[in-house]
Amino acid sequence: MTRRIVGCMTGTSIDGIDAALVEIDGTGLAMKPTFLRGVSRDLGPVREPLRRLAEQQPMTAGDIAGAMHAFAHAHIDAIRDLLKGEACDLICVHGQTVFHRPPASWQLMQPAPIAREFGVPVVFDLRAMDLAAGGQGAPITPIADWVLFRSSVSTAIVNLGGFCNITFLPAGCSPSEVRGMDVCPCNNLLDAIARRLMGVPFDAEGARAASGTVHDEALEDLEGILASMRGRSLGTGDETGEWISRWRAHVSPETLAATACEAIAARIGSATQESSEVYLAGGGARHRTLASAIASAATATVKPAASRNVPGEYREAVCFAILGALCQDRIPITLPQITNAPSPAPLSGAWILP
User: Fold this and answer.
1) For residue 209, which of 250, 262, 161 has the smallest C-alpha distance?
2) pLDDT at res. 100
3) Do 235 and 347 belong to one domain?
4) In this model, does residue 349 exceed pLDDT 80?
5) Cβ distance 137 to 155 under 8 Å?
6) Were 6 and a residue from 75, 91, 117, 237 both cysteine, which residue would form a disulfide, CB within 3.0 to 4.6 Å?
7) Into how many domains does the chain fold?
8) Which domain holds residue 23?
9) Contact (CB, 8 A) for 287 and 205
10) If we measure between CA atoms, which residue out of 120, 108, 133 comes closest to residue 351?
11) CA angle (164 as vertex; 249, 243 as ends), nearest 5
């Protein structure tokens, strides 16, 4: 059995839509996925209302409904560009996390226009059943990382998204041995520095951070904040904007960015010290200053996820294609040892049928 599945991801950094077309041979946990291609598209005008929602700013019901409609059509445009007129069998969309504080979480999405446009089932709201069962609803990709990256050596998959999360795959592990956790804010923090202090959406390739120097006192302050986040899923209220506010008058934007990179890298280095290989994925992997700091902090060999035939910028979209296939196969996608949901894990996903 072969399926062509589209996975779509928009992360908490609210920077764009990533869509991946994945060919999946087989079913269940024995499936063999192959990345075919991906596209990344800017969110355009819908970015600002999504950011306002994520920042808990007041909006009318009409504004929210309009944002949902525009967001769905932004997905349609990205998927149309991805498919190039070809067919697919299933679309899995994450939606935009605009609030996450378990047991409450909202991944905003209106999937009906997508199902109508492409004439295939759409699965969405993949975190809801885990949350309903008492879990954290996150991290959600570790089982897909197991499908993609498991090997004969201990491996860590580091996602440098809005928040950094890590999947740990012991050598030759089964799904029940996979571990995963949220670590700290990543692009949410770095992009906030860029927006608030540099006047740009993000620090392209970390060039501005590269010209800064680490400020010891600001570093100690941030490390204390990040250490307090250990052991739970991260979301609304964990972006560390208060640290930026506290230090912006005392150090340059470049120094603040360099200091943030150092603190994030230290958390990742500490978390991955038992892994033999570390793979970097997510938008933050393109931030050269951050990637260099991680390589210096880690004891393991650090490589891009692309070295395992999964382009880092599309890893989450590929993971969501895999999660969509598992939902279709009625395989639980969350792991109780990671989300703290009761075992056995619930089946996940809400469906829109064309």
Assistant:
1) 262
2) 92
3) no
4) yes
5) no
6) 91
7) 2
8) 2-139+312-352
9) yes
10) 120
11) 15
Q: What is the DSSP string of 211-260?
A: TS---HHHHHHHHHHHHTTTTS---TT-S-HHHHHHHTTTS-HHHHHHHH
**Residue 278, domain member (yes or no):** yes
Q: How many CA atoms lie within 13 A of 237 on its CB side?
A: 9
Strands (DSSP E) contained in 48-127 are 90-93, 96-101, 104-108, 122-124
pLDDT recorded at residue 114 = 98
**297: β partners:** none
Residues 342 and 292 in one domain: no
Is the per-residue pLDDT at 231 higher than 80?
no
Instruction: Supply the pTM of this predicted model.
Output: 0.91
Centroid of chain to Cα 113: 24
Q: Amino acid identity of 266?
A: A
Q: Which of 178, 155, 175, 180 is nearest to 29 (CA)?
A: 175
125 & 183 share domain: no
